[in-house]
Specification:
It contains no helices and 11 strands. It is an all-beta fold. Strands 2, 4, 5, 6, 9, 10 and 11 form a 7-stranded mixed beta sheet that branches. A 4-stranded antiparallel beta sheet has the order 1-3-8-7, with no helix packed on it. A hairpin with a 5-residue loop joins strand 4 and strand 5. The radius of gyration is 13 Å and the shape is globular.
Length: about 110
């Protein structure tokens, strides 16, 4: 399973980091994708990371503002989003492997509020 960190509240201009811990398998075995769903919107793919070598691919929308990292010692993958705005309010998900994703985290609510 993939277990994500809890809800976060941030003010505009700050950063937020969400974790996704894999259990039952070694995280280096599969890519991890990050997606988000804003209120009333569909899923938006943010990118993916190969935890084995740390190489990441980012959706153009997020280039320069997002970073994926992996800590293989704890089987955990992270997404950090910087310079958040109100439009970054969403539920953030990690998902394993290729689309359609066989395994999803439970989602982490990120709320940007002044």
């Amino acid at each position: 399973q993939l277990v994500q960190s809890g809800a976060e509240v941030r003010t505009p201009g700050t950063s937020v980091k969400v974790s996704c811990k894999a259990s039952g398998y070694t995280c280096t075995s599969y890519f991890i994708n990050w997606l988000r769903q804003a209120p009333g919107q569909g899923f938006e793919w943010m990118g993916r990371i190969d935890p084995e070598d740390g190489k990441a691919k980012y959706a153009e929308t997020f280039q320069g503002r997002v970073a994926f990292t992996a800590d293989t010692s704890t089987n955990t993958v992270y997404v950090e989003l910087t310079r958040v705005t109100f439009n970054d309010t969403a539920v953030y998900y990690c998902a394993r492997g290729g689309h359609p994703y066989a395994l999803w985290g439970q989602g982490s609510q990120v709320t940007v509020s002044s």
